[in-house]
Amino acid sequence: MSHPKCRFCNSNLESFCDLGLSPLANSFLKKNQLQDEESFFPLHAYICEKCLLVQLEEFESPQKIFTDYAYFSSFSKTWLKHCQDYTNQVISKFNLDRGKRIIEIASNDGYLLKYFKEANIPVLGIEPAENVAQFAVNSGIPTEIGFFNSKLAEKLKKEDKQADLLICNNVLAHVPSLNDFIKGLKILLKPEGLITIEFPSLLKLIEENQFDTIYHEHFSYFSCLTVEKIFAHHKLTLFDIEELHTHGGSFRIYLQHQENSRPIGENVSRIKLIERDKGLDKISSYHNFKKQVEETKVQLQSFLNEKKRQGKSIAAYGAPAKGNTLLNYCNIGTDLIDYTVDLNPGKQGCFLPGSHIPIYHPDKIGETKPDFLLILPWNIKKEIMEQMDIINSWGGKFITPIPKVTVEQ
Asked: What was the pLDDT predicted at 70?
């Protein structure tokens, strides 16, 4: 078997974290599919020995993963508030008005572009999932249905649809053809335009033990040191960085054409220095991650098994992709978790891939009164604990699994 090569620079890869075999994290099952044979793929993250890009091999095409997608951004109030704040900030900071065009790649259900539209700024979404894109179109957000690449960028440029602001929130990680994708960004960006990209911090992933954010839909995991090199290769300059609390710790980077003259913000050198101090510029620093992941598996299994032996009932909240990585890697199924709940009606009535845990409406919590509620989307645990504070009325407790098993009331 040939050794995998880096998707950016084609150099050799070393092992970073092997999470065994896992189904696609968003391949939810209907009841009549539970007896069918399920597809499992290696969930093994590697690191490039040259550019230090952490990445997965591509076992399933983006077309298979994203054409009919179960994730709708509009179901999280925390995320919508984040998007509204971003809109207000970027409009003010860069003097955006109705003479500009905003394009978002992987625009989902129009959750973000609606705020620009409300400010009377022309928008265009690009979204591959037809079911989600149709929702956006029905909401009045013009949306190009398709996967973004250099070919689509050329088409839009010929139609005079280049962007003054090009937004890529949590999409860069989902792209297997990284070089062609970035080539497309450069084509679609007006000469004086700017790009903002949000992505989870690789440093936070390592420090906070966020191994459950590794799943097949995420092909790449970025440090600022590596992402700067990748974009510089395509003559795009990183000129500012913001640290965000979303997804357990993320970055928002600002990019421009190399020939543009916006000054480089002091955050760029500061954050790169932090990453170097933490060893992210040395491959040896990445070799201890697997051990802490294995310790979490043992800890969570032991805790849940002990509570079950005590006759306690355990339910879960959420059906996020990260939760499916966690449950499958830790071998947790219906023997330990009775069910999970989710606000997304598209997931209710389905079953989690691999673990086959049933998904219900959150009202189920009040009906069954579980002793413990395992929060799978731990990145929005505050929102969930407020929403589910009903469990305090019968003495129920919350469990968060990352960075370590924690019980809260």
From this structure: 47
Q: How far is CA 355 from the centre of its chain?
A: 21
pLDDT of residue 409: 83
- What's the CA gap between 41 and 58, in Å, rounded? 10
By DSSP bridging, strand 220-221 and strand 54-56 are antiparallel
Q: How far apart are CA 390 and CA 384, in angstroms?
A: 11
Q: What pLDDT is stored for residue 75 in this prediction? A: 54
Q: Are strands 397-400 and 123-127 parallel, antiparallel or unpaired?
A: unpaired
pTM, full prediction: 0.89
The answer for residues whose C-beta is within 8 angstroms of residue 211's C-beta and 6 or more apart is: 17, 19, 205, 289, 293, 296, 325, 329, 402
Of 291, 290, 228, 240, which Cα lies nearest the Cα of 265?
240
List C-alpha distances in Å: 214 to 11, 183, 267, 313. 21, 25, 27, 28
Q: pLDDT tens digits, residue range 124-173?
A: 999 988 888 888 899 899 999 999 999 999 999 999 999 999 999 989 99
Closest CA to 247 of 147, 348, 320, 166: 320
The amino acid that residue 305 corresponds to is: N
**d(C-alpha 137, C-alpha 59), whole Å:** 31
| Distant-in-sequence, close-in-space partners of 400: CB < 8 Å, separation ≥ 6 | 374, 375, 378, 381, 406, 408
pLDDT of residue 319: 95
Residues 6+ apart with CB under 8 A from 310: none
Measured distance CA(382)–CA(389) in Å, rounded: 10
Give ∠ CA 31-326-1 in degrees, rounded to 5: 95
Asked if 165 and 193 touch (Cβ cutoff 8 Å), the reply is yes
CA 37 distance to own-chain centroid: 27
Nearest to 239 by CA among 194, 203, 281: 194
What is the SS3 assignment for 126? strand
Within the chain, which residues score under 50 in pLDDT? 1, 67, 69-71, 73-74
The fraction of the chain above a pLDDT of 70, given in percent, is 95
Rounded to an integer, what distance in angstroms lies between the CA atom of residue 310 and that of residue 398? Answer: 17
